[in-house]
Amino acid sequence: MGRAPCCDKASVKRGPWSPEEDQKLKDYIEKHGTGGNWIALPQKAGLRRCGKSCRLRWLNYLRPNIKHGEFSDDEDRIICTLFANIGSRWSIIAGQLPGRTDNDIKNYWNTKLKKKLLMSSLMLPNPFVRPPNNINNYQQYLLSSPSPSSYSSPLPPTLRLCDNNYPTLGASRSFTSEGFSNISTNLFNIQPQDQGLGPMQNYQEKESPLIMFGGAGDDQQAASSSSYDEHFMMFSNCGMNNISDQQKQVNLGVSSGDHEIVSNVLDQYNMSCVEEIKQLISTTNLSCNSNLSFFVDENKTVRSEEEKVLMYY
DNA sequence: AAACAAGTCAACCGCGAAAAC
DNA sequence: AGTTTTCGCGGTTGACTTGTT
User: Fold this and answer.
1) What does pLDDT average to over chain A?
2) Nearest CA among A61, A17, A26 for reference residue A45
3) Is the pLDDT of residue A110 over 50?
4) CB under 7 Å from any atom of strand C: which residues?
5) What Gene3D superfamilies does the annotation carry (predicted)?
6) Cα–Cα distance between A98 and A264 in angstroms, integer?
7) pTM to 2 decimals?
8) Footprint of strand B on the protein (CB under 7 A)
9) Dist CA A159 CA A151 (whole Å)
10) How many angstroms separate the CA atoms of A96 and A149, rounded?
């Protein structure tokens, strides 16, 4: 036996709203408010509509100060950053964008922004590639890049999205996607067979700057305490399900120390995106069940990982 | 010009949470 | 304290529009 329907579907009108219905609903709510009862409202307002339908119509279309039309670059950036952090929590994201509705943002993400993001990810150079020594302005370096983008990126170019289920780097043998929004930001070149070897062995050899936000347990400690240097940084306390409180404390301690380390390292690279990354770190709630992983590597095999991104989408 | 494909977005659905009883 | 009702959310649908062949 299923749930009782909220209204008699046979007697209510469905489909697009007519201007007359809109006016009736608007007039009623402006005069009486919603009365805290959407189910009873349509009858009182003289509408042959389901209460849920009225609520949706009001919230998404009729209520005052709704903003329609193009999303700005700032709005794009807010949506992308929040999505990377909290996933498809549209109502929360909408809360940060006055005048926008969760439905609008969800549609915008699904139909446009996701693709826009992907295209910009494929077109822009890897911003974590260390600029040549004679270039001390990273913005300049990007502008002189041989692969300029015809797309405008809604994100700082540091953020590239891919499926968290793809093999992650060797540091992450205890890294899991449990409870993780299915988007994380990754750029890495580690092979699946390298997983489980531990972080330092792999990355020191490559002599590439790698900054990783994410990981847990041994990996995190190893990266943070034993041999961090300019080649490898880690910041996170993610993936800490099923471990002892004591271990959690260790990890949390490690990650709070890393924040400063990461900031210092980012400062060294003189990149235009540094402030955005710092912002991302500071706004990310790294709890046991939520995390942000962020892998960056200057290795030239980045392109193949981006093709995986394409497959995912 | 017609047929088809792809994109868009308003609206619907069903579920879990919260509130009311 | 347990049950029922309502709300709010995220995923999905499908009618309509736009683009392509």
Assistant:
1) 51
2) A26
3) yes
4) A 4, 6, 15-16, 34, 36-40, 51-52, 55, 88-92, 102-103, 106-107, 110
5) Homeodomain-like (1.10.10.60)
6) 34
7) 0.51
8) A 2-3, 9, 14-17, 36, 50, 52-53, 56-57, 60-61, 68, 103-104, 106-108, 110-112
9) 15
10) 29
